[in-house]
Design goal:
Elements: E1 5-8, E2 12-15, E3 18-21, E4 24-28, E5 51-55, H1 73-86, E6 93-97, H2 99-110, E7 117-121, H3 128-151, H4 157-167, H5 181-187, H6 192-205, E8 219-224, H7 232-241, E9 247-252, H8 259-262, H9 264-276
Parallel strand pairs: 4-5, 4-6, 6-7, 7-8, 8-9
Antiparallel strand pairs: 1-5, 2-3
Length: 284
């Protein structure tokens, strides 16, 4: 299995007469079935304080497609740890956005001593009724109905077109309408088979709530108050359930899905503070 990755920024930088190590952030894209280009160019901002490694997950982007039976949260999570082992990344900061955060969280549960820190951006989905209520608040009854049909597994080009035209625009609350959105979507090497596999199988398989106490590394949670998928109340419940590690939760007003894209200045400020500060002990 070959996994594609790209790198921004050095791990070692000159510091007087010595070379100083910087943190390495491994970023995981969402979709699932999208690729790492979702993070470009905005994540170059993080190279001011860290090395950034972008990874296309198994089945996505420029990585090997593999067998559909290997498209699981556990396999993707184990791939990330194996990837870090091969590259000798001893203490990665693992950052996942949307479903990439599901992979990152699974990695933290399966390999609790392997990560230095965990960053979860727009990750935990709320109950269906909670998500549908946000869609209706943002886009009216039609948006609620299209989202309901899509999440209930309706197939075909018609529902996909309606989802993309009615619901996807509601992911963003940027007043400028996210002018880079069209180009960013065109750059993605989508594997729609992975996305459909998620919609019909994997989404229902993700239920980590009774295991969240096992996460040990310091965790930063970012959420948008107007996210119609990874709802703000779900982010607050997630923070409360991570009882075995220090947690920072930031819910940003008038922000939708994908905090780094929606509010980059604030998000990267929070990321820098979290990554660069010495970790606290659990319970402090």
């Amino acid at each position: 299995m070959k996994l594609y990755f790209d790198v921004d920024g050095p791990h070692l930088v000159p510091d007087g007469p010595a070379m100083r190590e910087r943190p390495t952030i491994v970023v995981l894209h969402g979709g699932p079935g999208a690729d790492h280009t979702l993070f470009k160019p905005i994540f170059t901002a993080a190279t001011a304080f860290a090395q950034v490694i972008y990874l296309d997950q198994r089945g996505s982007g420029r990585s090997d497609r593999g067998d559909a039976r290997s498209w699981t949260w556990e396999r993707w999570a184990d791939d990330v740890i194996a990837f870090c082992d091969v590259l000798e990344i001893a203490d990665p900061v693992l950052l996942g956005t949307s479903s990439g955060g599901w992979v990152a969280l699974t990695a933290a549960l399966r390999h609790p001593d392997r990560l230095s820190k965990l960053v979860l951006d727009s990750v935990m989905p709320g109950p269906t009724a909670e998500r549908l209520a946000v869609f209706e608040r943002l886009g009216g009854p039609r948006a609620r109905e299209v989202a309901r049909r899509y999440w209930e597994g309706e197939t075909g080009d018609e529902i996909r077109r309606e989802w993309e035209s009615v619901c996807l625009p509601l992911y963003s609350r940027r007043p400028d309408g996210d002018p880079e959105a069209a180009d960013r979507l065109r750059r993605i090497r989508w594997n729609h088979d992975v996305l459909e596999h998620f919609r019909h199988h994997l989404a229902a398989d993700f239920d980590p709530w009774d295991r969240l106490h096992a996460v040990r590394c310091p965790t930063l949670i970012l959420a948008g108050e107007d996210d119609p998928v990874a709802t703000a109340p779900a982010a607050r419940r997630l923070a409360g359930a991570l009882t075995g590690c220090p947690v920072r939760l930031h819910v940003l007003a008038e922000v939708g899905h994908g905090v780094f894209r929606e509010a980059p200045d604030r998000a990267f400020e929070l990321l820098r503070d979290f990554v660069m500060e010495e970790a606290e002990s659990p319970g402090q």
